[in-house]
Amino acid sequence: MFGASHRRGLTRSDAVVVLGLCAISIGLLLPAIQKARAGAGCKTCQNNLMQIALATLEYHDTYGQFAPGMDDQYVGPLIQLLPFVGRDDLYKNFSFDPKFSLYFRNPYNLPPSTGTDDIPRPPDLYGCEGEVDVFLCPDGPQPDDTVNALLAVRYGTAGRDYRAGDGLSDSHLFAGSPGQLVLARSHYLAMAGYYWTPSLNGRYRGVFTYNSATQLSDLERGPENTIIYGEYWGGYIAWSGGGGIPSGWSNGSRSVGFNYSTFGTCPSTAASCDFQQSMGLSWATFGALHGKKFNIFNVAMADGSVQSLAGDIDYIVWLTLCSVRNPGGSPGSLRADEPWAGID
């Protein structure tokens, strides 16, 4: 049996001193620990983004072009990349049934919106359901921490940026309940550049657009100078229960097509960067949580490399890097009235 030994313990004053020293030590170590964890998470984010870039190039090698930014059903390129990141099972589970005009109106891909949290079964796994590790970053808001995710990004000119007569209006279109509960998330979105306007005549168009068929040979500045994917974290949206969605963080999905460089980056001075609720991010812009803390975010280039950019990158430089063409000349009549444009 074990006996208890009687030894003199700490006095109250000794304990106060020891606790004080521990608190100081923890205070000194905690920032270093947090930074180390953030650094490790950022490395994983970069590695995942590189895998997406390499899968994109493998797709190009297979089909002779990049996947469209979104097809006629508004399916995005990450769905097309599933077989190239080892998730052929999820690709085969996704329905491209042509009788549905939009992928998210196909009840096999996403349950109809009812405003409730009741998910009808079957199917056992919806086409938009099932997380993919390589599409997620540990630094970002994880699926269970988000209340909604993007279905499509629709702006610009009918017939060029989206299908004419689709019945939708210009918006970042999010899921309704219970669809948002099964919609798989993504922290990376394809780059569509600046949406088409007559004054710019496609000067800042990106690699991934509506029904695009971009080839590496189209990249006028070379693949090493052209962004194809960027970290996209979304932001806080006050849904306030509308459509059964509570207010909270909303981000990207693996089925959404792309986002536009039009909306700029965060952190920045743009009005759309909500620093109070979204830690400097906005649901419309590119950027990262480690971008708010360390003022960087990651992008994938068309040569398969990953680069880190400053969140306050010059807006015209950002548009140029995200475009297929070498724009040249002056920016022209960019929509400086848009609060997200970030033009001084």
Task: Describe this structure as you would to a colleague.
With 344 residues, the chain is α+β, with helices and mostly antiparallel strands. The protein has one domain (43-104, 127-321). It is built from 6 helices and 10 strands, in the order αααββαββββββαββα. Strands 1, 2, 3, 6 and 7 form a 5-stranded mixed β-sheet that branches. It has a 5-stranded mixed β-sheet with strand order 8-4-5-9-10. Residues 1-38 and 332-344 have low confidence and may be disordered.
Order of helices and strands: HHHEEHEEEEEEHEEH
Contiguous helical run count = 6
Percent of residues in beta strands?
A: 5-15%
Uncertain runs: 1-38, 332-344
Question: Residue-averaged pLDDT, rounded?
Answer: 84
What is the total domain count?
1
